[in-house]
Structure formats: C-alpha cells, structure tokens
Amino acid sequence: MAGPRRKKYTSGEGAQYVTRATAMRALQLSLKDFRRLCILKGIYPREPRNRKKAQKGATGIKTLYNKKDIRFLLHEPIIWKFREQKTVGRKIGRAKALKEYSEAKHLMNKPVLIKLDHIVKERYPTFIDALRDMDDCLTLCHLFSTFPSIRHIPRDQSTLCRRLMLEFMQAVIYSKALRKVFISIKGYYFQVEIKGQLITWIMPHQFSFEPQTKEDVDFRIMSTFVQFYIVLLGFVNFRLYHVMNLHYPPRVRRVEETEGTDLVDKMALQSERIAALNYPLVSTTTSIAEEEETALDKFELDGNEASKMEKAYIEADKIQKLKTLFKGMKVFLNREVPREPLVFILRCFGAEISWDKKLFVGATFEESDETITHQVVDRPQIERQYISRYYVQPQWVFDSVNARELLPVERYFIGAVLPPHLSPFVDESKTEAYHPPEEQQLFSNNENENEEEEEITPAPPKITTKEVDVSTKSISSIQKSINDSEESSSEEEDEEGDLGPEALKEKMKMKMIVTPGRMEEKDPFEEKKKEREEYKLREKMVHKKHKALYKSMMKGRALRAKDVKVLTKKRQLIDQKKMLKS
Amino acid sequence: MTAAVESKKKKKVCKRNKKNWRKYIDTKDVDDFLDLQRQEERIGGPASKKKNEELFVIDDLPTKEAAQDRNLPLTKKQRALLPMACYKNLESLTKVPDPITKRNRVRTKEERQATMLKKKRPEGWVSQRVVQARQDRLRTLKKKKAVPKGVVFRNDVWDEKTVLPDLEWLGKDALEHNLSKAKLASIRAPKGIVKKKSVLPALELPHPGTSYNPSVSDHQDLLRLVADKEIELQKKEAHLDRVTSDFFQKVTPAEKQAQWVAEMSQGLVKPELPDLTDDIEIKEEPLSDDEDTKENLRLSINPPTDRLKAKTRKQRRTQKRLREEALQRKYAKVEKKKISDIYALKKLNSSLNNRSEKQKLVAEKRKKLAAAHAGRTKRLAAKPFEEADIDFSRPCELRSSLNLVKKQGSLLSDRYQSLQKRNILAPATKQTKLRKARVKKFVKASHKIEEAGAQIQKRKGMKPRRK
C-alpha cells in the first residue's frame, strides 16, 4: 500500500547539510588542511533554516556545510598536494627519528608549490568580479606587508605582500584612480576607482605592528587568506599593467645608467626604486599615448534619467579636474612626515616630489631647490625657511583631495591650529541635517576665500546648476526632475527676486544682443502652480513597485526638513532672547 | 709398522711385477718428506728461508694505550672499506704459487671497454648510467636557472581559453565523460561560490569621529555611540547577575562546612550513648538488611516464565490467521474509501488549495524574515559571534599633528572580526591545550608482586595510580 517506509533525513533539509566532522572524513583531511582548503576555495559554513532537521535530530549547534559544496571540494586537485605534504611530514619525522638530519633538512627545505590560478578564475569569473572583492585583499596584504616574520606565517609572505602592494599603488598612480583619502586613528583610508568599481582599503600607520595572542586572532587562518589574496592581487596587477601598456613586473626608467653597475643585485636596485614610488614606469609602447578621455555623450533625456545624467556630467568634470589637482607643484617632504601615503597621494594627482636623500632612495631634488612650491612639514617650527615656497602641514594634502580643489594654504601653515579633518565617506542623507550658523559660516568663508584666490591661481571655476541651465536646453528639462525640482525652482526664484525688475531687464538686454525684443511676461505664481501640477502628475507615474520606497523616501525627507525647521526656529528664538538681553 | 712386521714374518714375497713391488716396498720416509714439503709450501715456505724482517717486528710502541689502539674496533667507515667477507671463500687457502706462470685470464667487460675508450676519454670507461645522469643533471640545472626566483605572474587568468580538441563526432555524454576524465573540463562549481555570504561591505566606512583630527560634533557622536554600547552591556551584565548569582542566598565557608558535615553524618550513630540494649538492635538490623538485598537480587523485572503456559501451535496458527484477516479488512476498507473518494473530489480540491495557500503564506513570511535579517550574522558554530568594541580615541588623546597620532585598535583583529561578521569564518576559540583522555591504570592480577601485594589490595578500588 504505502511502499517501504522512508528513512528520516533522506530528503529535504536533513539531506542538504553535513557536519564539519563528516566533511573532513569524506575528504580524508585533517582539520588544519580542511580549513585551508575551505578558505582557498571560498566555501564557508552555512546556517540551516531548521537546525534540528539539518543536524539529523542532533541537538546543540554544529558547524554545517552544504553537501554539494563538499562534493565539489572532492574534485579539487590541491587536495593531492595536501596529502603529499602529509607524507613528506611523515618522512621528516622518520628521518629525525633515525637521526638522519641531512635527509630531514633536505625534505624540510623542499619547496611546496600550490597553484591557485584555477581557483582565482573559479571564484571570480570576470575581472570586474575580482575588482569588486578587492577591499579585503588590499587591506590584508597591506597589513601583512608590515609584519615581521612570525610563527605560522611563511617567511616570504610579507615581502611578497609588500611587492604586490607597491605594484598596485604604482598602477593607481599611473591611472590616477585615487578618489578619496582619510586619516583615521586606525590607518589611512584610500578609495580608488578602477573600471567603475570603488575599492577602499586601509594602509596601517607606520610602526604599527603589535604582537597578538593566539586567542585573539588565529594567525594561521589569516595567513591562509593572505595566501589566496596574494595570487588574486598578482593577477589583478598583471591585468591592470597590461591594460595600461606597462611592463609587468614593473620597470622604472633608469635615471643614470652607471649608478647600478657596481651593485651585485640589480633586481634589488629595481625593487627599491619601485618602492620609492617616485620614478615613472616604463611603457611597452614607444609612442606616448595621449590620455584619451572618454567624453560623456549627451542625450536628450527627460525626468529622472536626465537628472542622473546631469549629475554624472558634473561628477565627471570634477574628477577630470581632480586628476590634475597638484600638477605643476613641486613638493618637498620633511623627514618627520610619513613618506609613503603622501608620495602616493601627491603623485596620483601629478605633483613632483622629493625628500631628504638619506631618508629613502628616489629623492629627485634637494631641499635647497628654489623652484619648490610647497614643503610639507609636521613640526611646530622650522629654522631655515625659504620665502619662495609654502610650508604646509600634511593635512592640507588630504583635505585638498577630499575637497577636489586646492584649499587655501593659510589655515595649514606651520604651527597653525588645523581645521578638523572631515571624513569624505559621509552618508549623503546626513547633509540634509541641521547645520548651525557657525558651521555654515565656516564653510561659506572657505568658499569666499576660494573666490579670492581665483584671481591668483587658475582654480577650477565652480559649476553652478544655473550655468548649465542656460547653456543647454536639454538640461533645462532636467531641472524639472523629481529630485531637484523643488530646490532648483526655489533657487531660481530667489536669484531673480534678488535682482529686482530693472536689473533683470538689464541682464536680459545683455543676453539678447542680436534682436532687441521684449521678453514674454510670465506670471510667476501661475508658473509655479503649473509646475506643481506637473510634479504631481509625474509622481503618479512612479511605478507601483517603487511606490512604497518613494513614499518612505519623501517622508524621511520631509521629517528631516521639519527637524531642520524646528532647530532653526529654536535658534532664532535663542538669538532673539540674547539680543534682548544685551 | 705392521707391514714391516708382516714383511719380516713373510720372508718370501713376490716382487716380480711393478704392482707387486709397490705393494711390498716401504715408502714412508719419502711420503713424510713430501708431506712436510707440501705443508711448508702451503704455509709459505720454511722459516729458515725467510728474512729477519719478515719474521720479526720491532716493538717500538711502548704503552698500554698503543695496545688498546691496536685492538680498537674499526669504525663504520673503515669497515666499509674492507673487502667483503663473502669473497673470502673465493681466495686460495694455500701459499703455493700458481704452477702456470703465464696464465691467460679472461678480462671483465669493463676492463675490455676501458682499453678501447682510453684514447677518447682520459678518465677511461664510464658506464652508460653515469653518462645519462650527468646529462640529466645538466638539463635540470638549465631548467632551474630558467625558473625565476620569486613568485611571478605572467598570464592573464581572465583571458585564457582552454583549447579543446575537435571532438564533434563524440556524443554529448561521451564527450563530457572523456573531458572530465582527461581533466580538460573543469568541474562545475556550485553557484554559491560566487555569491557573497553577507550584504555587509567588506570594509566598513569609517565613522567621521575616528578621524585623527575630528570635528567636535563628530567626535561627540562617536563617543555617544561608544557610551551607549557600554551602558547596554552593563545593563545586560547587571541583569544576568540579578538572575543568576544574586538569585541564591550566600553562605560563608564555615557555614558551608558545617552543612556538609551534617549532611555527611546523616544516619550515623552518634558516639555519645553506648547502651547495651542499643548494641543488640544494631547488630540485628544489618542482618535483616542483608536478607532483603538478597531477595531483591533474585527478583527480575519481568514475570517468571512458565513452560506450561506456552502457547500451542494451534493457538499460534489462529493468532496468525486473525492478524491476517484484520489486515485484509483494513485493505478492503482503504479500497472502499478510494471509490467513495471520487465523490469527495470537491473536498480534496479545496484542501489542496488550502495547502497551496498556506505554502504561499509561509513563503511570504520567510521572504519577509530574510529581508529583516539581511545584514544579520548567522549562527555558524556553537560559539556565538560577539561584536568587537568600537575603536575611538579619548579627547585627551587627540593631537592635531600627524606625527603624534595615537593608533587605536588592531587592524588584524578587526579583519578577523569582520570575516566572522560576514559569515565567512565560524567564530571559535583557539584550542591552546591538547586534550588527552584520562586513562585509568591498574596492575594486572598476574603481574602483582607479592611484597607490594598488601599495598595494592589496600588501594584496590581507590584512586588509580598514575606515573
């Protein structure tokens, strides 16, 4: 009737998972090797929906893996390497027991080469996939590059990490891909943009190695991660260099051919120069390719997309200017300044740099050079100062990059109390928050100073939304987009209101030189009403799928606006009270 | 002698033939002489003919040490240089020189080749194996030199295509099988490998308050976050204390000891009243107890079986028949229900619908739950994940100079925690001590020694002895 009785846990949740012990038994590996294999292959434990069923009725919490994952691991060729290593270990033990030390030594020194190329391809099918997952890789590699040789970490791992990190930084310098920088108490945050992917990593502060206990961090596990990330970073570097027509491994231009002739190890000289980050890389093509910038195409778009496009234009323009931020500057670094992060940033944006000759290889000019424009100093005072250059504190460099323009140097002079170093990684929704008048003044001052400076240095002209509005018709339609409509319309009105009717007339005259005519008079109230109606209509066009999200977004915006209103009102009241008192 | 005696007795013997002559002639002296000569030849000539140097040695080593030196056993290396013991059988035992002074010996193969090649190679003949080995060595050295010393990346993994042989004539299954066996086709990876295990970013963007020179408001924000977390933790701790340790009344050690003594001496007779009547009672009681225990031992949980009460074969047959009949009835009932179910189609349909609706609801619920738990750290191991403390600098530690920045937190442990948070690593405590099973040790009865016997018997059943 009902057929043979089915056994429990042969289907469904119960058949999907295996415990770690079972997996290890199936793969015939020790726990150490199993952990290594899982990390290298990117297979991690799972949480079942119903733990009791997944553990086949066993209570307690066990580490579970997907059965299919484990079956996939069975085919991995590097398992055979692990098994070989195991037998070699046994042979070493045997040789030691027989007191054949030379044999044991020979076996111990035998290199173990585990190839991970195929795993990189498997885990990251495309180059973009790899770039998306670089954060961990770069942070860990940079961290390990500062490590001395410790137990459980292969001796050459840290040197290899350092080499690859330097190569990556060189590639960033060459492609000018750096976007944001931040000095935190943990280390230096860098954000670069490669192929449209934002990659962030932390460079540790100088001399920051601290020994750690076993209970705190499992060094062996972290080292295994690094083992994989090294291979990943190597291939990413290779690809980046080839896309940019550079030699890989990188070669730097020889300054003087005779310099290295009496050295035994020329490779060491080369790697030292690469570490300096101050030599240009040698290209594979002889002709110097002009930096071809893909200009953004302009399309006639409307509504939301148009506003997005406009934003993209502004962003692209800003980035274009950022890339040549420090161009033409000659910077000298004092010896107390952290060299590596500063050289990396300054070189990314086109500055020429040098430092004390005795500090590090790669100094190009001396401190006494009169053409130096800026000197980065981090001490309260300096004995001998040149009048031809600015003495600034290192924060100026970081803040200028984040502001995407050269900030006035006065606030960063030697001994000056620095303005706060603000994070560039702030959530944009926070900008809608209430800003007290003091803060507003602080930033408006900044802008004013910039305008003053414009006369002296050709700083990038600020692009306001209005200019764009006038320039192209297509973008004027953008203004009507949902996101910006309120702000822009109010701005326009404000400006027009400020000008007054006569001045406006004058302005219009100035604009229309060809045929003196009369502008069509428009009722501003009517216009506003019409706009409002259109806006409502457009709101109705929002897809049903996104309606809830849109509503919540608008609600949040209104709430924030209300908060701001309340706070400004409060402030006003307080100010009034103060006024009355005084 | 006997022959001589006989010959004396026998005066007349025939010596006509050579044979007879030989039979009766006495050759003893000749034989003795020849024996002596042969023996001397074997030993190496008579001593009288040898030179002094050959026979005598000037003993110029004066002391005991020299004698010891001479008698020292050979070292391993020296012994290895000696000719093999098995060749001793092949050596001649006599010192008699070879009668043929010019003997033609067949030379070995190697000797023959050596003379042939001497002109070509100054070192003479070398075996083919050695020549091959030399060539191999050269080749490997060349190969080694070509391999770069460090790790080198010289291919683009994302731009490689495995070139497969043209095997269109093979069927699909056969092709797949052959390719996988030849390791040309890679095993298809499960989809989950590429998927990220958590929606959390690998590197959390820093709080603006963690800047080395933060603005006051940002720093205050951060401090507030830290303080809130700390307060929450303290609250939790206080709650746990209230619910656990404060829950129970506290007892001083002295009180505890007194309680323990009282508990342990329950049912023991107090040594204050040594009465005679009591004594008798005490003696009687344990006896009765013993009897009880014996009876208890005899009893089993199951009732005793009785052979007379066993079922007969007939009884068993009937039982079986009844069982089968009951089963038949059950089947019949089910069959009947199948027919009647045709009329209950509507009901069945609605129940099916109900079920599918329920499943839909469950699926929706699950989806909602998944959305709510999007950034949650999953429970991957027995040890739960604990979020690390937020790194921050105290107001007194803030310096505006980059040189004087006080570093906070460890990047390595930060990474380790992040991996755990993103469901990549299962949180675990590192096992620093190796756990060994405790083994009970006993001395086998057959291995007990008489002297210690008394001692061991005393210890029997008590704490095992460990070495």
Automatic annotation (TrEMBL), chain A:
Naming one, the record's GO cellular component terms include: PeBoW complex
Task: Provide the transmembrane region boundaries.
Answer: none
Alphabetically, the GO molecular function entries are: ribonucleoprotein complex binding; RNA binding
Q: Which Pfam families match?
A: Pescadillo_N
From the UniProt annotation, give the residues forming the signal peptide: none
Q: Name one GO biological process term.
A: maturation of LSU-rRNA from tricistronic rRNA transcript (SSU-rRNA, 5.8S rRNA, LSU-rRNA)
Residue ranges under compositional bias (Low complexity)? 471-482
Keywords noted in UniProt: Nucleus, Ribosome biogenesis, rRNA processing
The record's listing under InterPro entries reads: BRCT_dom, BRCT_dom_sf, PES
Q: Where can this protein be found?
A: Nucleus, Nucleolus; Nucleus, Nucleoplasm
Composition bias (Acidic residues) maps to 484-499
Region (Disordered) residue spans: 443-506
Family, similarity comment:
Belongs to the pescadillo family.
Q: What does this protein do?
A: Required for maturation of ribosomal RNAs and formation of the large ribosomal subunit.
Protein name listed in UniProt: Pescadillo homolog
Identify the taxonomic lineage of the organism of origin. Eukaryota, Metazoa, Ecdysozoa, Arthropoda, Hexapoda
UniProtKB/TrEMBL annotation, chain B:
Q: Which UniProt keywords apply?
A: Nucleus, Ribosome biogenesis
Q: Where are the annotated segments for Disordered?
A: 284-322
The record's Gene Ontology cellular component field reads: nucleolus; nucleoplasm
Q: Name one GO molecular function term.
A: 5S rRNA binding
GO BP, sorted A to Z = ribosomal large subunit assembly; rRNA processing
> Is Nucleus a UniProt keyword of this protein?
yes
Pfam families for the chain:
Nop53
Give the UniProt subcellular location, in the record's own words: Nucleus, Nucleolus; Nucleus, Nucleoplasm
Primary place of residence?
Answer: nucleus
Query: Could you tell me what this protein is called?
Result: Ribosome biogenesis protein NOP53
Mitochondrion as a keyword? no
